[in-house]
Design goal:
Two copies of one chain form a homodimer.
Chain A: E1 20-23, H1 31-34, E2 39-44, E3 60-66, E4 78-79, E5 90-91, E6 104-115, E7 118-122, E8 131-137, H2 151-157
Antiparallel strand pairs in A: 1-2, 1-8, 2-7, 3-6, 3-8, 4-5, 6-7
Chain lengths: 172, 172
């Protein structure tokens, strides 16, 4: 039953090719702060002119990208979320941090429009020049609303509800 | 301003390593039909024993996987969704189909539990033996509810609302 022992036959090697590139001109240091409002272009490679047909039918898309500026030497199995030492040390896969086993980025972006082979999107938190490796539709089957997340997640997003005796409970 | 002309400095090559493997024992032909109910294990590589700490804090996770059974020769820039010729030909990136430029799979899965280095999840629509390349938390920032999707999407999911004079409007 061990899949490795069963030696599944792979028809392709695990290697990626860029299908496009992120362009927004924002310096790297500005991206974390501006991420939710940032408008980016994805400049598609000419080879994918037909493959993007129909993206305009969606309001939201997943963009998968290769975080080409991550240094593999910075990988650590456990991290403090956002580098904040007041938040508990947790497995890197339990965070959206950059220094992961494979430096793959994933963003849900808003579709804004298209000019030829340049796609315009909002909320893509990738650095200028990042290789894009896949674009997928975001559809109603991707929506789950009754979520559980760790306490530290609310300490980042709703700081007023925590600490220093301010009281209050985390937002749902 | 062209990111290619600016030659961004990449710190890593675009190559992936499996961090775990999918195990469920369901034959490939059964996966599309059973996908929403299927329970899978992700058997993590020993090297990531610490990296998975804290996943139990989430109700839902993204799983990124390498579709090792896709044959690159089957890539087509435009496809009929689900192979159904009654649905319009559309760019492959506008579908969740398998024969994409890079055969990366993405699923939102429900966390069920963990036994040592085996994670138990529901709704992972990957074949038995598939290499897993990333796991990321799904959090409230990934939830968008006012979605637009193409008409053909509703023709797949709400067939009773279409054609043959049955009438009705697609569900929101």
């Amino acid at each position: 039953m061990d899949p490795i022992a069963r030696k599944p036959i792979a028809l392709n090697p695990i290697a990626l090719k860029p299908i496009g590139w992120v362009r927004h001109g924002v310096p790297e240091a500005g991206v974390p702060r501006l991420r939710s409002e940032m408008v980016s272009e994805i400049v598609m490679e000419d080879a994918y002119a037909e493959a993007i047909a129909g993206l305009e039918g969606y309001s939201h898309l997943f963009v998968l990208f290769w975080m080409h500026r991550c240094d593999p030497a910075r990988y650590r199995p456990m991290v403090h979320p956002r580098g904040r030492e007041d938040l508990p040390l947790t497995g890197v896969l339990s965070t959206r941090g950059r220094n992961r086993p494979n430096p793959l980025g994933l963003a849900v972006v808003e579709w804004l429009g298209r000019a030829g082979h340049c796609l315009q999107v909002r909320r893509l938190d990738a650095y200028d020049g990042t290789p894009v490796i896949d674009i997928k539709p975001y559809d109603p089957y991707d929506v789950f609303t009754d979520l559980r997340v760790p306490d530290w997640w609310y300490r980042i997003t709703h700081p007023a509800g925590y600490g220093f005796g301010i009281g209050g409970t985390p937002a749902p």
